[in-house]
Automatic annotation (TrEMBL):
The entry's keywords: Membrane, Transmembrane, Transmembrane helix
Organism: Fuerstiella marisgermanici
Domain of life assignment: Bacteria
UniProt protein name: Uncharacterized protein
Residues that span the membrane, as ranges: 13-34, 46-70, 111-133, 145-173, 185-218, 273-290, 296-320, 341-359, 371-393
Length: 406
């Protein structure tokens, strides 16, 4: 192994510590065997070795996880130091070249350390084979016992390393990729549906293929991020400076809206309304739905809560210039330019109840009707206008008393 690759591995002290703990555990296992293990029945002798074997195999697996963490430290992302990025920008290094402080992704040289860990784990697991053969009254051949114990133990460190690296690499991308949370959540819900409709074996096989696909996607996205590394701290910012407020009068007369937190969140989800509805549909469909009156009341309560939440998000700061008493006195019960913001909430309740009302009629099955009755109103609430900025600047409204006090 060359020096460039060794930078992505823990130090020699970690390897010596792992070897020392494994040897000490084997010594305690031998002492336990001579103390009480040899007196057990042949079919029960695995009880003497199992805790020590499991501990040593677990150490090898943890070592694979630690190597995955060390490996990602060589990726110069946005969280790295400014001096490191400045140094990269000042050197002839190019994003297409290998990173200077070791690899940040799995490489072929990983075969060497994980072969060693696999041999150590397989040697520990091989101790259980005689007990497994005897426990089945010779029904399990030695080859089958080796496949059940040695092969999984030998592959466990490498598999856990790839799994840990994939999850951690994808976690690095979560802060800068808009679809990083949506895609795994949607796919996980689909996998649960596949497991319920087919079998657990097919679901786990699909999960394994999905993890491989996730590793490839993370790898490619991180390579794309790597092309932007030299410009993270050296390029000039394109964001215009914020204007300084010279007085409270300027702040009051400024047309810049002060969007509340919930309204800003809903506005940010507006372009992803259909994606959010699809994700909600997949997960809500996992609930046990029926066609009774209790389920109808549950849907009505959920729709009412969603509608009130949307109304509160918009009316948190701004209220109508005419209160209830003023509207009664002036006989102006509806202010169209202000009250139009409540139309999506009303449409949410009506659409949800109408959709679930098709279940008792036999038009939709309970699961499909229940999921649609929640997902469709959410899409309506996110996509239907007006947006907060347009409404706050065009409607006759005023700040609430709590906002004025602040």
């Amino acid at each position: 192994m060359n020096r460039w690759y060794r930078q992505s591995l823990p130090g020699r002290a970690g390897a010596y510590l792992l070897l020392t703990i494994v040897l000490l555990t084997d010594v305690f296992a031998v002492i336990s065997w001579f103390t009480w293990g040899h007196g057990l029945e042949a079919s029960d002798q695995y009880l003497c070795w199992l805790p020590f074997v499991g501990f040593n195999v677990g150490l090898c697996v943890i070592a694979g996880m630690i190597v995955a963490g060390y490996r990602l430290q060589g990726f110069p992302d946005r969280t790295a130091s400014t001096s490191f990025h400045s140094w990269l920008a000042a050197t002839p290094w190019q994003p297409s070249s290998r990173t200077p402080f070791g690899p940040w992704h799995p490489v072929w040289l990983d075969v060497v350390p994980f072969s060693i860990l696999g041999v150590v784990a397989a040697t520990q697991a091989a101790v259980l084979c005689p007990s497994l053969v005897a426990a089945r009254d010779q029904a399990m051949a030695w080859s089958d016992a080796l496949i059940v114990t040695v092969v999984p133990a030998a592959l466990a460190p490498a598999v856990v390393f790839l799994f840990t690296w994939t999850i951690c690499a994808y976690g690095i991308l979560c802060s800068r990729w808009n679809w990083s949370i949506f895609l795994p959540a949607l796919w996980m819900g689909i996998l649960i549906h596949v497991g319920k409709l087919t079998s657990a074996e097919i679901a786990f096989s699909t999960l394994g293929v999905s993890l491989v696909g996730l590793m490839v996607v993370s790898w490619r996205r991180m390579q794309l991020e790597l092309t932007k590394v030299p410009e993270f701290h050296t390029a000039l910012s394109d964001v215009a400076p914020k204007p300084r407020r010279t007085s409270t009068t300027y702040a009051a007369l400024s047309p810049a809206p002060q969007n509340p937190q919930f309204a800003a969140g809903l506005h940010g989800l507006r372009p992803k309304a259909f994606a959010a509805g699809l994700l909600l549909f997949v997960w809500v469909a996992l609930l046990p739905w029926g066609s009774g009156s209790v389920n109808y009341l549950t849907v009505a309560l959920a729709l009412f809560i969603l509608a009130v939440f949307r109304m509160a998000a918009y009316g948190e700061i701004l209220t109508s210039h005419l209160g209830l008493v003023a509207r009664w006195s002036t006989r102006q019960f509806i202010v169209p330019s202000y009250d139009r913001v409540w139309i999506p909430s009303v449409v949410m309740i009506v659409a949800g109840l109408a959709t679930y009302g098709l279940v008792p009629l036999g038009v939709l099955p309970p699961t499909l009707g229940g999921a649609l009755s929640i997902a469709v109103p959410v899409v309506i609430g996110l996509a239907m206008g007006p947006d907060y900025t347009t409404w706050s600047l065009t409607a006759p409204c005023r700040y609430s008393k709590r906002q004025q006090q602040q």
